[in-house]
Amino acid sequence: MRFLLLAVLMSWPAAAQVPVCQAQREGMTACFDGRLCRCRYEAGGQLTGRPDGFRWDCGGLRPDCRPAPATLPQPDAPPWPQYIPPPQLWIEPPKPR
After folding, report:
1. In the Cβ-directed half-sphere of 88, how many Cα atoms lie within 13 Å?
2. Could you give phi then psi for residue 4, rounded to 5 degrees?
3. Strands in 1-97 per DSSP E
4. Torsion of the alpha carbons at 7, 11, 15 and 17, rounded to the nearest 10
5. Between these two residues, 5 and 54, which has the higher pLDDT value?
6. Sheet harboring 53-57: ordered strands across?
């Protein structure tokens, strides 16, 4: 029975270690889910319902830290689009006689 419990615990996937935001790490940045987060001190209050402390700032104004796309534009590509629509010609109808 102990062997079975040990086997189950060994096969459990390891959780990623998230660095703790604390006073020693203030100003440190880390990439979480494609967002560059920063460790900083945030004041708490009754409105937020949180105590004062250090927290990760991953707000919407923080920059992305995702890698660049794997495809690059071709260096010999023309600056205009590949498809140029035909010219619009106005042909006047013949005048009635």
Report:
1. 0
2. -65, -45
3. 29-32, 35-42, 53-57
4. 70
5. 54
6. 29-32, 35-42, 53-57
End-to-end CA, the chain:
106
More confidently predicted of 32 and 77? 32
CA 51 – CA 48 distance, rounded (Å): 9
Give the model's pLDDT for residue 35: 93
Euclidean distance between CA atoms 11 and 15, whole angstroms:
12
Task: From 66, 54, 57, 52, select the one nearest 29 (Cα to Cα).
Answer: 57
CA 2 to chain CA centroid, Å, is 43
pLDDT tens digit sequence for 50-79? 899 999 999 999 999 988 777 766 777 666
pTM of the entire structure?
A: 0.53
